[in-house]
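hiii so um. not sure if this is the right channel but i have a protein structure encoded as tokens and i wanna go backwards to a sequence. like what aa goes where. can anyone help
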């Protein structure tokens, strides 16, 4: 069994929200998956993945956000290869993470004409996550605390969420392939 790691990324200060804006969707249409700093072989920078719903089923914003373009370009071909995100664009943006555990984990993202704030409240106890490849082609090893309450605002307006798939504060972890 070959267990060598060829592609990887690790992070500190992760705030992750994956949700749906209406019932009956086959896949989540909201992803705000950000970290205070992500480490890769290409460098380290505040980075993440964003997907915001638009009209007619097409996203209004989708891609990897990074404060360093080299780091942002690493994600698609190395971590998300073989997924719908493999060829996602890299967007330059500003990411600010605030943690006041166990009460609140908040991320503010400024990208293009959007100001996005994802706030997770009432965080549970930290748990170890060890997920083998499945829906995504990488191993996920992290610490995470689930949130009981979630708020997402885009340009100051609250986005109603019909279902939450993931809402966690992940203070550290790594993906590997």
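sure thing!! here u go:
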């Amino acid at each position: 069994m070959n267990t060598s790691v060829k592609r990887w990324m690790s992070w500190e200060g992760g705030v992750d929200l994956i949700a749906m804006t209406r019932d009956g969707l086959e896949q989540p249409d909201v992803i705000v998956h950000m970290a205070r700093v992500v480490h890769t072989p290409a460098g380290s920078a505040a980075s993440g993945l964003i997907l915001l719903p638009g009209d007619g089923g097409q996203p209004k914003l989708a891609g990897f956000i990074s404060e360093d373009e080299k780091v942002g370009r690493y994600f698609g071909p190395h971590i998300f290869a073989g997924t719908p995100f493999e060829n996602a664009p890299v967007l330059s943006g500003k990411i600010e993470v605030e943690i006041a555990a166990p009460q609140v984990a908040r991320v503010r993202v400024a990208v293009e004409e959007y100001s996005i704030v994802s706030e997770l409240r009432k965080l549970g106890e930290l748990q170890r996550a060890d997920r083998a490849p499945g829906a995504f082609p990488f191993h996920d090893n992290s610490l995470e605390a689930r949130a009981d309450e979630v708020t997402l605002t885009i340009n100051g307006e609250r986005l109603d969420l019909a279902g939450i798939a993931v809402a966690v504060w992940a203070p550290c972890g790594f993906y590997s392939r």
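oh and The first helix runs from residue 69 to 79.
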